Amino acid sequence: MTLSLFAVMLLVTTTACGGNPTTAGEKMTSGSGVRPNPANPGPGKVTELYKTIEKPEGGMNNYSDVDPRMDTSEAAAKAERNIKQSGELQKNVTNPFKQLGKQLDERSIPDRVGDGAKGVARSAQQTAEDVAKGTERGYNNLKENTKTFADDLSSGVDELKQNAKNKGDDLKDAANDLKDTIRKAS
């Protein structure tokens, strides 16, 4: 068994390592009738396995990524419209700091200060109104909460009186039961 295994190994290694150089892609003369091996062309040998039909365009593997049978004119038109629209939007966008600078340059300093003072006065007036409304709301809430607390306290006191009366009655009954028990025992 080991001898046959050794023989098979010897056969495989001699076939793989040795061999006819003409089958490895060596260039033959025109009269030999043996063609070079296209899977393993030697240096300077066959470089193209087939002749291309399409011209290279730069897509995947240097050819178009789009099936030539597909109509892409609508998508191309939409892309062109989007590019044109984005260009127009970029032209219309202005720097807000430049726009603010133009507005400031057009008006005199006293006018700008006067507008600032008017804005501060409006803001202070609005704040005062907001504080007054908030104070009134807080006062109304406090008044409502105090009334609710007084009502709850009053009902709690009434409940305590009733409980004390009930406990007093219970104690009276217990004292009478104790008296009866002592009389019967004596």
Structure, briefly:
This protein is mostly helical.
Structure description:
The chain is an all-alpha fold. The protein has helices at about 1-15, 75-90, 95-105, 110-185. The termini are far apart.
What labels describe this entry?
186 residues; mainly alpha
Shape: flat
The proportion of residues in beta strands is: under 5%
| SSE series | HHHH
Oligomeric assembly: single chain
| Low-confidence region ranges | 21-31
Individual helix count: 4
Radius of gyration: 53 Å
Gap from first CA to last CA? 121 Å
Mean pLDDT: 77
Q: What characterizes the major β-sheet?
A: none
Number of strands: 0
- Class by alpha and beta content: mainly alpha
Helix fraction? Answer: 55-70%
Task: Indicate the topology.
Layout: H1 2-17, H2 73-92, H3 96-106, H4 109-185
